Amino acid sequence: MVAYYDEMKDRAGIKPAYADVAEWAKATTAEDLRLRQNEAEGLFRRNGITFAVYGEGGDPERLIPFDLMPRVFSSSEWDVIERGSIQRARALNAFLTDVYGKREFIKAGKIPARLVEGNPAYEPIMQGIQPVGDIFSHIIGVDLVRTGPDEFNVLEDNCRTPSGISYVLQNREVMQRIMPSMFRSGQVRPVDHYGDMLAAAMQSVAPDDCDGRPTLAILTPGHYNSAYFEHSFLADIMGIELVEGQDLFVENDMLFMRTIRGPERIHVLYRRIDDAFLDPEAFNPDSMLGVPGLMRAYAAGGVTIVNAPGAGVADDKATYVYVPEMIRFFLGEEPILPNVETWQCADESECKYVLDNLSELVVKEVHGSGGYGMLIGPKSTKAEIEKFEGLIKANPGNYIAQPTLALSTVPSLSEEGLAPRHVDLRPFVISGKGKTELIPGGLTRVALREGSLVVNSSQGGGVKDTWVLRGDRL
């Protein structure tokens, strides 16, 4: 039987960081816990906090599953996560600057050129473009898993348009309403300054010709998008405009927004649209979501795009293998947060190992996301394993494999009361000119189904509030 690391307790009992939470839960009746859980769900419903699952028929909009019990980190535990996440973001941005610039990492033989040039996320149009501050990915989501007391591993990076920060902030707002006594000591560090932090970072990378305070905006595909709630939520807390492609136009290599007062220049655009749809002149000519000429304005320095097009070449699951070497090469440091051991099926010998051990491994599509296109060997049927064997043999370069991790557990509210459930974590790292930082907290996703290791909301997972303490306990 696999032993999973319990974040709340060990052989000595409840850990200090969880002591007050455990005491609160013990003093609260099962009926009261259910009432508070229902209250939390009501607040989520009232605020419209939903996500979309397409392809399953019916209404795709669903209430995000929320678990009442928080996940708690001591200050020393968070310090490792914070330093490691910042280090990783710096290295990824250095790699992107190099990929679209001198290509020294490739020339040094640190990564095969085919993994860059053959990557669907690589955008040749970005070659030679130097963003303000050499920042391609201003917002990076680092997906982490924990397997032991001091064992945090990076599962993957998200350098394009990482989502989920709205849940982080809304989780905290809900928890402060339904569990106010736990926040009175002031030991739980706040997260509500994320909007200010992101706005400051965006302002710092405004074009050089910006006079005075730069105008910021968020570009959304519209209210049918699965993450539209987050787009509107962020625009609201940041006090900036939420725009669609039809609201914008390019003139004299500058980006403008149509308003009742006339055109207003946009200096920094936080896009929540995929590269392919950003600019029909540069990418997909059929796109109705983007802005014609946007890339022309960007290349001329008339507007800054957050995150830059082409940033996805750094977060491909095949590129992920090389991030520790990026840290050594560009920063001259050893990785603080190690990768999960990974086998690349593009390599013949590694592919053979994967095929021989499919029943024990987790196999993922290189370009897959959301928990789709993957095989969890120990929990799969013989037919499912045989299917993946055929897929890998047909296109080995499309897959990587990793060991089945013993994800840590935290207490969650189930039908039977509190029970351990597996979790991961996504901190959001913000990079501005001269500063890389993150709020003390992140998106904890939880596998609400007993025994499940898949935390994605589209696959039956939910979210928790993530508490970072100022010390070792409340």
TrEMBL record:
Domain of life from the UniProt record: Bacteria
Alphabetized InterPro entries for the sequence: ATP-dep_Glu-Cys_Ligase-2, CP_ATPgrasp_2, UCP005522
Domain Circularly permuted ATP-grasp type as annotated: residue spans: 70-447
Name of the protein this chain belongs to: Circularly permuted ATP-grasp type 2 domain-containing protein
Organism for this UniProt entry: Donghicola eburneus
Classification of source organism: Bacteria, Pseudomonadati, Pseudomonadota, Alphaproteobacteria, Rhodobacterales
